[in-house]
Amino acid sequence: MAKAIGKAISNLPWENKPAGYQYPVWRYSGNPIITRDNLFFANSIFNSAVVPYGDGFRGVFRVDDRTRDQVIVTGRSADAVNWQLDEKVIFRGYDPRICEIDGRYYLSWVNLTPHGTTIGVAVTDDFENWEQLEDATYPVARNGVLFPRKINDEYMMLVRPCDRGHTPYGDIFIERSKDLEYWGKYRFVMGPVRNWEMTKVGAGPTPIETDEGWLMFYHGVITSCNGFTYSMGAAILDINEPWKVLHRADSFLLAPHEIYETVGDVPNVVFPCAALTDSATGRIAIYYGAADTSVALAFTTVDETIDYIKKHDMIK
Ligand code: BMA
């Protein structure tokens, strides 16, 4: 049985898999959990990330405001399902991820610069005061996702170079840093292989450490005559050299099928940005943006996902 390595989260949100459901990832029955009603100035609240904090949870939320500016706010929750969002904008930009490394909380997000998007990085201890560090890339990049610990004494970040528009290509790379200031030593991790992800792939939540390797959920995009469709896939990366893909599911694990995923500002988008994992039970709660409009929640377990990846492995 595959095991998660990390903290126990006894108050992880959870719902059992519906009877008769065949797939390894299932949706929360109360979806979506966050909508524009959570903030009076929001047009939409979607691709967002959460982390355990004290007895409860904190989070960073992508808000497109009613001028359609893209901004990030923080929020708090006792149960990780019902969230109170703060009106204060902490940064401009989008698609935030949040990652605890050695007791501090690191935000990485798509930072807007006059020259295109970079990966912004900021650190906080209290979610009130933020220190912005150097950007982790030059323009143009998106989907910067930190690993939750140093590997061989280096911080590591998954990153997806792109263009200034709605990029029609995209591979996942890793970059490394000794000090979170200078980044380099890029390595290719993976690109699109199967049809459901053929246009581009990008990392999702903070990778989950397991005894089988790093469990990485990611998004993959297919282009149809109706535009892009974003689904979620999963792969297992080598624990010491995470640019090596050990196993990778050939099919998506979650695709836009429910009404809140297929109808919204951008239809047909499932965009995972966070996962909470309880190491005691192996339960995982995945937070994803739905149709660029709201935040939704899905569940799986470490064992069930890894078992599925291995049974549907495209790496032979
Ligand atoms: C990507 C990002 C995401 C968004 C997705 C679908 O390029 O901008 O924030 O969810 O497109 O519109």
Structural class: mainly beta
Q: In percent terms, what proportion of residues is strand?
A: over 45%
Q: How would you sum up the major sheet? A: 5 strands, antiparallel
List each distinct ligand once.
beta-D-mannopyranose
**Rg from Cα:** 18 Å
Number of helices: 2
State the separation between the terminal residues, measured CA to CA: 21 Å
How many beta strands in the DSSP annotation? 21
Uncertain segments are: none
Outline:
globular
Task: Annotate the secondary structure layout.
Blueprint: E1 26-27, E2 42-53, E3 56-65, E4 70-77, E5 84-92, E6 94-101, E7 104-113, E8 116-124, E9 130-132, E10 141-146, E11 155-161, E12 172-177, E13 184-190, E14 200-203, E15 208-210, E16 213-224, E17 227-237, E18 245-248, H1 259-262, E19 270-278, E20 283-290, E21 294-301, H2 302-311
Antiparallel strand pairs: 1-21, 2-3, 3-4, 4-5, 6-7, 7-8, 8-9, 10-11, 11-12, 12-13, 14-16, 15-16, 16-17, 17-18, 19-20, 20-21
The structure holds beta-D-mannopyranose.
